[in-house]
TrEMBL record:
Name of protein: Phosphoheptose isomerase
Protein function: Catalyzes the isomerization of sedoheptulose 7-phosphate in D-glycero-D-manno-heptose 7-phosphate.
Entry's cofactor comment: Binds 1 zinc ion per subunit.
Gene Ontology CC: cytoplasm
Residues annotated to bind Zn(2+): 59, 63, 173, 181
Further comment: The reaction produces a racemic mixture of D-glycero-alpha-D-manno-heptose 7-phosphate and D-glycero-beta-D-manno-heptose 7-phosphate.
SUPFAM superfamilies for the chain: SIS domain
Statement: the UniProt record of this protein carries the keyword Cytoplasm: yes
Enzyme Commission number(s) from the entry: 5.3.1.28
Lineage: Bacteria, Pseudomonadati, Pseudomonadota, Betaproteobacteria, Burkholderiales
UniProt-recorded Gene Ontology molecular function terms: carbohydrate derivative binding; D-sedoheptulose 7-phosphate isomerase activity; zinc ion binding
Keywords assigned by UniProt, alphabetized: Carbohydrate metabolism, Cytoplasm, Isomerase, Metal-binding, Zinc
Length: 198
């Protein structure tokens, strides 16, 4: 691979992040407010996604339960992508479509948040998880791309849709990662005020 091809990845990623910043900032702020309110009221955040988005789900949960950039008490977040016994049992006995929705039904309560990742906006098991969350009077923060797909049409006015204005999966995931960090930082600032570097 020549240097020019490598540079093009960096440039495309940087340009999309700059383009996305203005478009997504209001939605990210809404997500922070929604999540902080839920956490302040003793609720939790459930997180799901497939493939690279499963890694994003686990990354987000780890930042809340552990820490982001400053020491604080653990915050209740759980990735629904990690229990292989639940995942394989549900996929085998029911269908792969239900691997997240069954867990939302088991663990989700009114006032909780579902953070749902799908770069296409059309992941069937993520859609099923959103359906289960809405039935349980949970709020949803959906992180998508490619126009938002079917997920964009499922959300209510009380939910938040963070749709990256891109079609390339790798670039969407890169913006999702920055968004995760923005949300974690926003929650920390809402908890403690100011800036970690002040």
């Amino acid at each position: 691979m020549n240097n020019q091809r490598i540079l093009s990845h960096f440039h495309e990623s940087a340009e999309l992040k700059i383009q996305s910043a203005t478009v997504l900032a209001p939605h990210i702020a809404q997500a922070i407010e929604l999540m902080f309110s839920a956490l302040s009221n003793g609720n939790k955040i459930l997180v799901c996604g497939n493939g690279g988005s499963a890694a994003d789900a686990q990354h987000f949960a780890a930042e809340l339960v552990g820490r982001f950039e400053r020491e604080r008490f653990p915050l209740p977040a759980m990735a629904l992508t990690t229990d292989t016994s639940i995942l394989t049992a549900v996929a085998n006995d029911y269908s792969y479509r239900e691997i997240f929705s069954k867990q939302v039904q088991a663990f989700g309560q009114a006032g909780d948040i579902l953070l749902a990742f799908s770069t296409s906006g059309n992941s069937a098991n993520v859609m099923a998880a959103i359906e289960a969350a809405l039935e349980r009077e949970m709020r949803v923060v959906a992180m998508t791309g490619k126009g938002g797909g079917a997920i964009g049409k499922m959300l209510t006015d009380a939910d938040v849709h963070i749709c990256v204005p891109a079609d390339r999966t790798a670039r969407i995931q890169e913006v999702h990662l920055v968004t995760i960090h923005c949300i974690c930082d926003g929650i920390d600032v809402a908890l403690f005020g100011g800036d970690a570097n002040d």
